[in-house]
Amino acid sequence: MSSNNRPLSPHLDIYKLPLSALLSIVHRGTGAFLTFGSIVLVWWLMALAGGEEAFMSAQSFMGSFIGRLILFGWSFALFFHLANGIRHLFWDAGYGFEKDEVEKSSFIVLGTAGLLTLFVWVAAFSFGVGA
Questions:
Q1: Hey, CA dihedral for 42, 46, 49, 55, is it positive or negative?
Q2: Could you tell me if residue 1 is inside a domain?
């Protein structure tokens, strides 16, 4: 029996993944990034306990472009993971499974994470924390 006549399964680049599927992937990625950010936070706290020289070294890194980029990404990951986790709590309770509700809640998760991240960073710079 020849296998040449069998249809091939389309690859992922043919399918358009729904937004909720992409957010599921991003949710896992933000969980991993939160682990990395927590390690950076522990490093900063250890530098705080390690004396002025260690703390100033950590502060200079955190104040650099790369350090702020990591902090910005970490704060977005935190708020995204939180908002998407709350959405999963609603799903666990049996709510929000209709296709239009899933799509709407996906945009709510993205909007909430973006707005909370911007709010925290604007507030930090307003109070002189990020200056």
A1: negative
A2: no
Task: Specify if 12 maps to a domain.
Answer: no
Number of domains in the chain: 1
Note the pLDDT of residue 16: 82
Task: Report which of 77, 70, 69, 75 is spatially closest to residue 29, judged by C-alpha positions.
Answer: 77
The whole domain housing 107 covers 19-126
Are residues 99 and 55 in contact, defined by beta-carbon separation less than 8 angstroms? no
pLDDT tens for each residue of 30-46: 999 999 999 999 999 99
91/95 Cα distance (integer angstroms): 5
Rounded Cα distance between 30 and 1, Å, is 47
Amino acid at 39: I
- 86-124 confidence digits (pLDDT tens): 999 999 999 999 999 999 999 999 999 999 999 999 999
Mean pLDDT of 72-83: 97
Whole-angstrom Cα distance, residue 48 to residue 31? 26
Distances (CA, A) of 112 to 6, 19, 78: 46, 15, 11
Helices 19-49, 99-126: crossing angle, 10 deg rounding:
30
